[in-house]
Amino acid sequence: MADRKTGLIDRGELATDQFDWGLIKWLVTPGQPEAANLTLGEVVLLPGQGHDRHNHPDAEEVLYVLSGTGEQMVDDGEPYPVRAGDAIYVPQGVFHSTRNTGWETMRLLAIYNPGGSEAGLRELPDYRQVPAGEAPKLG
Hints:
Blueprint: E1 16-19, E2 22-28, E3 39-45, E4 50-54, E5 60-67, E6 69-74, E7 80-83, E8 87-90, E9 96-100, E10 106-113, H1 118-121, E11 128-130
Antiparallel strand pairs: 1-2, 1-11, 2-3, 3-10, 4-9, 5-8, 5-10, 6-7, 6-9
């Protein structure tokens, strides 16, 4: 994919990051488009699955629930229910986790400021990259 400065981002031209718990399509990352300094990704959590406790030492994060239901933990507090339309703010360096508690997929938007924390996910043992234009194989 060629470097872009601005404009439409075609998800079909982007690879998908796949994990045992779900998928992420990184729509904006630092330098892609060219002037970007933040990260925006669409996250899909499979039913009963989630992203375990972790933190982003160098970035704050905002999660916005597009669909589904789940539980969110922030700063090692008690998990609380989240659903479509909810936004979660996670300060820089604070531990957090998200789990899908429903029977259908849970979709979220994840924003890192500044961007770059997504690179660490590629080091997880269950990471696989699905090339642009290919459908992930689940299960």
